[in-house]
Design a protein that fits this description.
- By secondary structure, this protein is of the alpha/beta class.
- The protein has a single domain, classed as Rossmann fold.
- It is globular, with a radius of gyration of 17 Å.
Length: 244
């Protein structure tokens, strides 16, 4: 049995009763949760490898909506199977080839159009976790319509100059004990952003935290991790509130 080098332990997750509803947007399904009052601010949540139906990600959507944003998590896998905890790690590279977090531009445009035309959104931010953190990093380099982004433990894939010219404010969250992202990579990112980035950015490493730490639901948190999880979520929301 190979140690799982990328995925956090999905273990037993408690059931989660969602507050939002599912919609169809062109060729994409999506989960949407709206605040109880009118707003013209929206947030796109980009799921991790477990896909748009995973309870933890829906919890995050509902959390953002509770802070006053029309929040949407589209199925960036376009109806194909997400990764599951019973899949074999040896198959992961092949699965990733068909689920490239850098190929999300078309889906992002579909969702942005929906938020603007159907929901009246004027300012739109984006947050993404793991696979979704990689997608957010990519989109913040490419899509000026996204007012601000938060990338949570997105693996840093290529070191090239075009990885650092962020278009709008972006916050990078990492866990200190993430075995998929070395602290060297985090320091390199910081170094390069200092050189090339012209917009506000922030990088923060949370002590003792592993990959996937920030999206756990309260009842799934270990007491010693809880303060860091809550801090990361507050930081994520504060960054969005500052710019969106």
């Amino acid at each position: 049995q190979m140690a799982d080098p990328f995925l956090y332990n999905t273990g037993e997750r408690s059931h989660y009763g969602c507050l939002g509803h599912e919609v169809q947007i062109e060729y994409l399904k999506a989960y949407v949760c709206r605040p109880s009052f009118f707003t013209d601010k929206a947030v796109i949540v980009v799921h991790d490898v477990f896909g748009w139906r995973f309870p933890d990600i829906r919890y995050i959507v509902d959390l953002m909506a509770g802070h006053g944003y029309i929040t949407i998590c589209p199925d960036f896998f376009k109806g194909t199977e997400p990764w599951t905890s019973t899949d074999h790690w040896v198959d992961f590279p092949d699965w990733m080839k068909n689920h490239d977090p850098m190929k999300v531009d078309k889906e992002a445009d579909v969702v942005l159009k929906y938020l603007k035309e159907q929901c009246g959104a004027k300012k739109i931010g984006i947050v993404g976790f793991s696979w979704g953190g990689m997608a957010v990093h990519h989109l913040m380099l490419k899509n000026p319509q996204l007012t601000a982004g938060v990338s949570l433990y997105g693996r840093i894939v290529r070191d090239s100059e075009e990885r650092y010219g962020l278009l709008n404010p972006t916050f990078f969250i990492f866990g200190e004990k993430d075995h998929t992202i070395s602290l060297d990579q985090v320091f390199l990112l910081e170094d390069k952003l200092k050189q090339y980035c012209k917009v506000p950015y922030k990088i923060k490493v949370y002590p003792g935290q592993v990959h996937g730490f920030a999206q756990l639901k309260p009842e799934d948190m270990r007491p010693e991790d809880k303060p860091y999880i809550e801090e990361a979520r507050r930081d994520m929301i504060d960054w969005i509130k500052m710019f969106v």
